Amino acid sequence: MQRDTVFDLIGVGFGPSNLALAVRLAEQEQQGEAPLTHCFIERQLEFGWHRGMLLDDCRMQISFLKDLATLRDPKSRFTFINYLFERGRLADFVNLKNFFPTRVEFHDYLRWVASSFDERVHYGERVAAIEPVMAAGGSSQINALRVHSADEAGREWHRVTRALSLGLGGAPHVPEMFASLGEAGIVHSSNYLHSIDRLAGAPTDDKRRRVAVIGSGQSAAEVFTDLTRRFEHVDATLVMRAGALKPADDSPFVNEIFSPAFTDVFYGQPRERRDALLADFRDTNYAVVDRPLIEQIYEMLYLQRIEGEARHRLCAHSVIEAAQRTAGGQIELTMRDTLSGRRSAERFDALVLATGYRRDPHRTLLAGLAQHLGDALAAHEVGRDYRLSTPAHFKPRIYLQGCCEDSHGLSDTLLSVLARRSDEIATALREGHTRARGERTNRMDQTTQTTQIAQTKNNGVGDGRMAVAL
Ligand code: FAD
User: Fold this and answer.
1) Comparing C-alpha atoms, which of 33, 45, 31 is closest to residue 8?
2) Domain 6-170+359-442 is in which class?
3) N or C: which end of the chain has fewer CB within 10 A?
């Protein structure tokens, strides 16, 4: 009988979440824990952290001490400080007197950590579906999951696992009115650096390019600023429903909600109070901008007035009611001013949608399991250990990372809790694995006894072999 290799864990996505888990599993093994067979599947061809927004001068929004390991174990070899040390920049970094490295440097740190796990990661494969593997012997019990992936050349892989860790990140949110226009001249901010040269076009003597950035959060502000600096021939307009760019609240008491310990507090609340907490602290992360960047934008717009040429604009209080393509290939936005109620139409050569991310890709990926999962997926029933609740006959464990804001708090989509969360998941995974192995051994013992009794009754007829696949 041909048997699949059965992994103890497959991680889908190899961004910071599953990278942190890889680190923790490696450390546990080094500390003498039994090895778990595991691998990760990542659709990018190599490690990359939001490469489409890796703008030269943008800084991290959390302290470098909230790296993949320090808050759990400052002595880990995977800390940001050890990265600096090994790269020979530790003393120089100290001279910067800054807790917030550039994103380019943090990306390099993450890539440095990821390079230790190259053998465990299947890059260049997109996981397309996950289906149940039923127990042998016609039982309705599901013992494992089959993970289907394919690379760009169309080659397919199928791997079987007893546990999954989904760290898929967000999917670009494209409002319907833009999605229906097709892709020409429109890019989501997640793809900004990969597309902007094409969108901005080559400079010509007689025609300036008009580019609108839609949104009022950090990405919108970063893209707007970048456009004004990158291209002489581009006039940038920032269109936003909000009345002003508002600063992110990163004051110390407020920042405590991003401490790993706050996850317990948040998780312990009833649903209404969790919702209230999310609403109360929303301005730490959503539709807000780092204060220094707001000040830079204000000053840039102010300086334009001295020069007397207002090339770049900020259109606040503006709701986009419609978007359509013109015969000349431009995009016309119909905007309503929420203060005056007045409508106006403006034409742009290109749009950058800084409209945020959906946190539901895990639902699409798990759709093939929906009939076996009961209400757990729809109702987002997730344990404190990030494990999706599953019915008794569904044995594989599914851990969710980055899509548990509703249950685990605002830090869930960010980097702040990674050092702790990876430990919580790795520990839960081991406990679950040990328990499941015990159950399997019990089942095998019972089956062996039954088989022996049956063989005795049959006067020894039969070879006593069993097809206990999992
Ligand atoms: P991601 O980093 O999004 O990684 C998910 C990975 O899964 C990706 O590599 C993707 O290619 C892969 N993947 C998805 N689907 C599949 C599939 N079907 N098959 C195979 N692979 C798949 N947070 C902070 O705390 N501080 C910051 O300073 C900060 N800066 C940010 C800047 C930007 C521009 C953005 C967009 C976000 C930022 N964030 C920041 C939030 C961000 O969510 C986290 O930094 C972090 O990326 C979360 O890691 P993750 O692994 O959960 O998700």
Assistant:
1) 33
2) alpha beta
3) N
Three-state DSSP at 75 gives coil
How far, in Å, is the centroid of ligand 1 from the Cα of 356? Answer: 12
Structural tokens at position 389:
């609740």
| Joined tokens for residue 213 | 């950035």
- Do 414 and 169 touch, CB atoms closer than 8 A? no
- For 173-248+285-356, CATH number out of 1.10.150.20, 1.10.10.10, 3.40.640.10, 3.50.50.60 equals 3.50.50.60
Ligand 1 centroid – CA 171 distance (Å): 9
Best residue among 23, 43, 284 to mutate for probing ligand 1's pocket (most ligand atoms within 8 Å of CB) is 43
Residue with CA nearest ligand 1 atom 7: 13
In tens, the pLDDT along 234-255 reads 999 999 999 999 999 999 999 9
- Judge if pTM exceeds 0.70: yes
Instruction: Pick the residue whose CA is nearest to atom 4 on ligand 1.
Output: 15
Q: Which atom of ligand 1 is nearest to the CA of 219?
A: 34
Verify whether ligand 1 is closer than 6 Å to residue 416 (CB atom). Answer: yes
Residue 33: C-alpha distances to residues 24, 27, 75, 78 (Å): 11, 9, 18, 19
Q: How far apart are CA 146 and CA 316, in angstroms?
A: 49
CATH 3.50.50.60 domain residues, the chain: 6-170+359-442, 173-248+285-356
Contact yes or no for 38/7 (Cβ under 8 A):
yes
Distance of CA 31 to the CA centre of its chain: 29
